[in-house]
Write a structure and sequence with these properties.
With 388 residues, this protein is of the alpha/beta class. It has 2 domains: 204 residues, Rossmann fold (3-Layer(aba) Sandwich), CATH 3.40.50; 173 residues, 3-Layer(aba) Sandwich (Rossmann fold), CATH 3.40.50.2000. It has a 7-stranded parallel sheet, sandwiched between helices. Strands 12-11-10-13-14-15 form a 6-stranded parallel sheet, with helices on both faces.
Length: 388
């Protein structure tokens, strides 16, 4: 089933040989930074047979994403669209129409933009692209006014989908509706576990680089955005610093709420105890240098960062909104966001530390190892193409 025939024909011993090219899948993202959904797709992309399937990316930011260089090195193409802002809707509809008219090679559109994939998926349906996938990665909790708009677009999007992918049931229920559960297709998150295992040499090198020798290192890995609860993170760490004078916090990630983070750090007078690292491509090494992982998210699709950190033997502290799927070792701890930062800090400081390599195989045993999952996505694409 895989491959499309190349118009170019080669001659060998006076016989024509048809050359097969990979099926190119167009992935839709806001920006290819190191978020959970982006990292999951890249984990698969590195391991799949790219002679059968190639990934291209349609992104919605002018600035270069953290994964873009690697995508190009793997043979992927990157296209840009205007940001998905209300004032841009008319322009966006025009641009996405022109894009699909120009790029007739795509038979599979795989959107990772939740309900914001509506315009692209609608246009793809209009232009009779046969496979139109929307992938549910997370489920928001609570209510805010923009949920009215989100609910409007996700309902409008449904008629244009041919397939509904999900990371977990909760995210699928939110985006597609419980009434469609029999149509959900689960694609498990997967990682290269070996990259995240604790390494004392990595710990020593990173701690020396960041001047963290003999410190109690609280690690944060994630965007400075509302779902990650950044103000609460800094408040919790402020309380940890009161209990443990040797405490330091390192934060790998960037985002639109960075000014809020800086203001909260200044307000709590912990400027000399926080190292903001920005977007990093060596998070796997950073885990070895941490003592605990702190991620009190308001919501998570899965929370792959917790899986990575547990492989590295880190005690992990997440909110009760983090899915239980990531509870793969005794190092995973859940605390309610109704508890105060002081209570969070006490729990973190009182938790005993286990041997760092004791649970290095926890992800493999829980089914998160990419080596055993890498063919599942190719098989899914093959299956959906054959039904069209």
């Amino acid at each position: 089933m895989w491959g499309v025939y190349n118009a170019d024909l080669y001659s060998e011993d006076d016989r024509e040989i048809e050359v097969m090219e990979p099926v190119r899948v167009l992935n839709l993202f806001t920006i290819m930074n190191r978020g959970g959904a982006e990292t999951m797709v890249m984990n698969y992309y590195r391991k799949i047979n790219r002679e059968k399937v190639q990934f291209d990316f349609l992104v919605h930011r002018e600035e270069e994403g953290a994964y873009e260089q690697e995508i190009k090195e793997l043979g992927g193409r990157i296209y840009r669209m205007p940001p998905m802002y209300p004032q841009n809707f008319s322009l966006y509809k025009k641009k996405i129409r022109e894009f699909f008219e120009e790029h007739k090679e795509y038979k599979i559109i795989h959107s990772h933009m939740s309900e914001l994939g509506y315009f692209a998926l609608k246009e793809a349906a209009r232009q009779e692209i046969p496979v139109r996938i929307c992938h549910a990665h997370n489920a928001p909790h609570g209510f805010e006014w923009k949920m009215i708009v989100r609910n409007y677009f996700k309902k409008r999007m449904m008629p244009y989908l041919t397939h509904m992918f999900m990371c977990g049931k909760e995210s699928g229920d939110w985006l597609f509706g419980k009434e469609n559960e029999d149509k959900f297709i689960q694609l498990n998150n997967a990682i290269d576990a070996e990259r995240f295992r604790y390494d004392s040499k990595k710990e020593e090198a990173i701690r020396k680089e960041l001047n963290l020798e003999n410190k109690f290192v609280v690690g944060v890995v994630g965007r400075m955005s509302e779902p990650k609860n950044p103000a609460f993170i800094t408040s919790v760490f402020s309380e940890i610093a009161k209990l443990n004078p040797a405490a330091m916090m390192i934060w790998a990630g960037d985002g639109e709420l960075k000014p809020l983070v800086l203001n909260t750090i200044k307000k709590n007078k912990i400027e000399d105890k926080v190292v903001l690292l920005g977007s990093r491509n060596d998070v796997n090494k950073l885990y070895s240098a941490m003592d605990v992982l702190l991620m009190p998210s308001k919501f998570e699709g899965l929370g792959l960062v917790f899986v990575e950190a547990q492989i590295a033997g880190l005690p992990c502290f997440g909110s009760t909104n983090v899915p239980k799927d990531v509870d793969i070792s005794p190092n995973m701890n859940y605390i309610s966001l109704n508890e105060s930062p002081k209570v969070w800090a006490q729990r973190i400081c009182e938790t005993p530390h286990l041997q760092r390599d004791e649970f290095k195989d926890c992800a493999t045993k829980a089914g998160f190892e990419i080596a055993t999952k890498k063919n599942s996505l190719v098989e899914l694409y093959d299956g959906v193409l054959q039904t069209k």
